[in-house]
Write a structure and sequence with these properties.
The complex is a heterodimer of chains A (95) and B (477).
Chain A: H1 5-14, H2 24-42, E1 62-63, H3 73-78, E2 83-84, E3 87-91
Antiparallel strand pairs in A: 2-3
Chain B: E1 3-14, H1 39-42, E2 51-52, H2 53-65, E3 73-74, E4 77-80, E5 90-93, E6 103-108, E7 114-126, E8 130-136, E9 139-143, E10 150-156, H3 163-180, E11 192-202, E12 212-215, H4 220-239, E13 247-252, E14 257-263, E15 273-274, E16 281-282, H5 285-293, H6 299-310, H7 314-321, H8 324-337, H9 340-358, H10 369-380, H11 386-397, H12 403-409, H13 418-431, H14 433-440, H15 446-457, H16 464-476
Parallel strand pairs in B: 12-13
Antiparallel strand pairs in B: 1-10, 1-11, 3-16, 4-5, 4-15, 6-7, 7-10, 8-9, 11-12, 13-14
Classes of the chains: A alpha+beta (95), B alpha+beta (477).
């Protein structure tokens, strides 16, 4: 399986990555090579292996339901580009 | 052509945990903007999510309550999309291995019949923040207090065939999550939200039609209106030669219309993949049994018990058990006064009427169950009449006194002294010779008039049954 230019542009758009038109063929080639590697892996018979959701064979630890965080809004907003009335401001979002 | 409506619902229930699903920030509603948004909720670099045990337990309780399959492992995945109220650029959700698998519940329809609706799955995920589109220097304001609040997304099978069925299902889920204590069900604050997938097909056709998704219809009334409107729209489109497009539509309750938000073709490809920051969550048989052990009496069981234990009708039992608070209140009143039917009538008509009239929520009811039970106890033991009971109740609405104090202070006790009653009866007979004659001539209806006269003279404190008896004795002898 290989990716063409339109696939690359679509993926870049979904990931909000700005890539120049010149770079698209190179990305298409490199990403296609990764897919070739996946194809090689696909060729291995894994019918006796159950799928893993994580490379480590351990399970999630859970935390008790307790409020442990205190308000640090001023600290966080000190590094935000724009704030007002306690809100973070972002370029206007139009529905 | 005759059309059949097909509806499936996705309900988002905010879980009533104290802290967020992946962080120790508070989930309390109504705080100052961004004061409950910690580094994890903001998606700052280097933070890691740690799963809240209580969110898992609550999801398990829901699963057990609907008889769902619960897999030994469930897995969190990243749902990737860009929106400023989702600072990480992905929502942590569940895709292939949700915590709650397939289950079902019964809904009751208006004609008294019931129907089983399938629940496809229910999965845990984090809520997003809120975007405020008022003008902030030409920008959009973001409040991330809600970001990371645990949600249980409950997905139904496309089993509903009318807006009424959809409402019945939604109300059932609403009652269930409140009984389970896993969600406060507050629709105004957004704790309980609903999206509907709606399609139509010719009656008899096996395949489903193309569906539209109606977003965020946040009251029972709007759900019904929005679905009916969308069904009409789809039928119009098809009958005028067009075809329904798969898309997300927003219901506008002011304009009473649905309009397209985005079509699925151009919608984001969410590129789900297992979240490497979280390990699979193991659920043991012991966990499931522990969840089962904490289940309270659920709405259906309670309804059945009210019918068998208190001799209530199916309808009355259904009304009383729809909300846990009301059911609990009723039981206390019934126990206090010893007459369940009287308690049922008062709770579902007099009390709810008074609350409705003054626009007060049940949870803020000024008369608690023990006090109302105290009034009815005095009706049962004939201390006061039903009419006086309403007077005592009105009095209680505005103060904290109990029934006996009010009856005593206002002198509302029924006159039980037979001598005093007899004197009143004699007075009435003496003053109304014409009516006495009419009665003797066979016009026995005037008995009502006589009783009324005594009730008036006694200011409602005579016992109408006893008076009736006395008049009959005197007139028929």
């Amino acid at each position: 399986m290989s990716l063409d230019s339109s696939d690359v542009k679509k993926i870049a758009h979904l990931a909000r990555l700005g890539i120049s038109d010149d770079a698209v063929p190179e990305y298409a080639t490199e990403l296609s090579r990764i897919l070739e590697l996946v194809e090689q892996m696909n060729a291995v018979d894994t019918s006796a292996v159950s799928p893993m959701a994580h490379p480590q064979d351990v399970v999630q630890r859970l935390r008790p339901d307790e409020v442990t965080e205190t308000d640090n809004r001023d600290g966080f907003q000190g590094v935000a580009p724009a704030t007002e009335d306690g809100l973070y401001l972002v370029p206007r979002v139009i529905e | 052509m005759a059309w059949e409506t097909v509806i499936g619902l996705e309900i988002h229930a905010q879980l009533a945990t104290k802290s967020k699903i992946f962080s120790g920030a508070s989930t309390a509603f109504g705080a100052e903007p961004n004061t409950q948004a910690c580094a994890v909720d903001l998606g700052l670099p280097g933070v890691l999510p740690v799963l809240n045990r209580e969110a898992v337990n609550m999801a398990l309780r829901f699963g057990v309550a609907i008889g769902a399959e619960i897999a030994p492992y469930n897995v969190f995945a990243r749902k990737n999309y860009f929106y400023p109220d989702l600072p990480k650029g992905y929502q942590i959700s569940q895709m292939e291995l949700p915590i709650v698998g397939s289950g079902h519940l019964e809904i009751e329809l208006e004609d008294g019949s019931s129907k089983t609706v399938g629940v496809t799955r229910a999965h845990l995920e984090e809520d997003a923040g809120k975007s405020l589109h008022e003008d902030y220097q030409g920008m959009t304001g973001i409040d991330l207090n809600r970001a990371g609040t645990p949600l249980l997304e409950i997905v139904s099978e496309p089993d509903m065939r009318s807006a009424k069925e959809a409402i019945a299902y939604m109300k059932k889920i609403h009652a269930l999550v409140r009984y389970l204590g896993i969600c406060d069900g507050n629709m105004q604050e957004g704790s309980f939200r609903c999206d509907a997938n709606v399609s139509v097909r010719p009656v008899g056709q096996a395949e489903y039609g193309t569906r539209a998704e109606l977003k965020n219809i946040n009251s029972f009334r709007f759900v019904e209106r929005a679905i009916n409107l969308e069904v009409e729209r789809q039928i119009d489109v098809i009958e005028s030669g067009g075809s329904v497009v798969q898309e997300t539509r927003l219901y506008d309750s002011d304009k009473h219309e649905t309009r397209s938000m985005r079509s699925k073709e151009e919608a984001n490809d969410y590129r789900y993949f297992p979240d490497p920051d979280l390990l699979p969550v193991a659920i043991s048989e012991a966990d499931i049994e522990a969840a089962r052990a904490t289940l309270p009496e659920l709405p259906d069981e309670k309804k059945k018990r009210f019918v068998s234990e208190f001799g209530l009708s199916d309808y009355d039992a259904g009304v009383l058990t729809a909300e846990l608070e009301v059911a609990t209140y009723f039981e206390v009143v019934a126990q206090e006064c010893g007459d369940a039917k009287l308690a049922s009538n008062w709770v579902s008509s007099d009390l709810s009427g008074a609350l409705h009239k003054s626009g007060i929520e049940f949870s803020d009811c000024p008369v608690d169950a023990v006090r109302l039970g105290g009034v009815l106890k005095r009706v049962v033991d004939n201390t006061i009449s039903g009419k006086i009971a309403k007077q005592v109740f009105d009095e209680m609405w505005n103060n904290d006194a109990d029934a006996d104090t009010i009856i005593e202070q206002k002198g509302l006790k029924q006159i039980t002294d037979t001598g005093a009653l007899e004197a009143m009866v004699d007075d009435v007979l003496a003053a109304n010779a014409d009516q006495v004659e009419q009665y003797r001539a066979g016009k026995t209806k005037v008995l009502g008039f006589f009783v009324g006269q005594v009730m008036k003279a006694s200011k409602g404190k005579a016992n109408p049954g006893q008076i009736n008896q006395l008049f009959k004795q005197k007139l028929d002898s």
